[in-house]
TrEMBL record:
<keyword id="KW-0812">Transmembrane</keyword>
<feature type="transmembrane region" description="Helical">
    <location>
        <begin position="15"/>
        <end position="38"/>
    </location>
</feature>
<feature type="transmembrane region" description="Helical">
    <location>
        <begin position="50"/>
        <end position="68"/>
    </location>
</feature>
<keyword id="KW-1133">Transmembrane helix</keyword>
<keyword id="KW-0472">Membrane</keyword>
<dbReference type="GO" id="GO:0016020">
    <property type="term" value="C:membrane"/>
</dbReference>
<dbReference type="Pfam" id="PF01306">
    <property type="entry name" value="LacY_symp"/>
</dbReference>
<dbReference type="GO" id="GO:0005351">
    <property type="term" value="F:carbohydrate:proton symporter activity"/>
</dbReference>
<dbReference type="InterPro" id="IPR036259">
    <property type="entry name" value="MFS_trans_sf"/>
</dbReference>
<protein>
    <submittedName>
        <fullName>Uncharacterized protein</fullName>
    </submittedName>
</protein>
<dbReference type="InterPro" id="IPR000576">
    <property type="entry name" value="LacY/RafB_perm_fam"/>
</dbReference>
Length: 82
C-alpha cells in the first residue's frame, strides 16, 4: 500500500495514477484473505475474531483521542483592522 501511495505522488499523468491504484486493487483482496486465514488459525472458534478486532480498534481510538488533541497554543487569532 505504501508503494502505491508513494508511486502516486511521484507520477504526473492521471493515467499513471489510475494504473498505480489499479495495481493496489489486486493486492488488497490478497491481504484481506491472509488476515482472515491468520485469525482463523490463531484464535478460538468459540470467540469471534471480530471481537478481538473490535477491542484493538477501541484501544487505538482511545490512543488517537489523546494523541491527536488540538493544541490551542499554536492557534493564530484572526484580528481585523477597522
Amino acid at each position: 500500500m505504501a508503494i502505491c501511495i508513494t508511486g502516486t505522488g511521484l507520477v504526473n499523468a492521471p493515467i499513471l495514477i489510475a494504473a498505480m491504484w489499479l495495481a493496489h486493487s489486486f493486492k488488497l483482496p490478497i491481504m484481506i484473505v491472509a488476515v482472515f486465514k491468520y485469525l482463523d488459525t490463531n484464535f478460538e472458534a468459540r470467540l469471534s475474531s471480530i471481537l478481538y478486532l473490535g477491542i484493538i480498534v477501541i484501544i487505538f481510538s482511545v490512543i488517537a483521542v489523546f494523541a491527536l488533541k488540538k493544541d490551542n497554543s499554536q492557534m493564530v487569532k484572526n484580528t481585523t483592522i477597522e
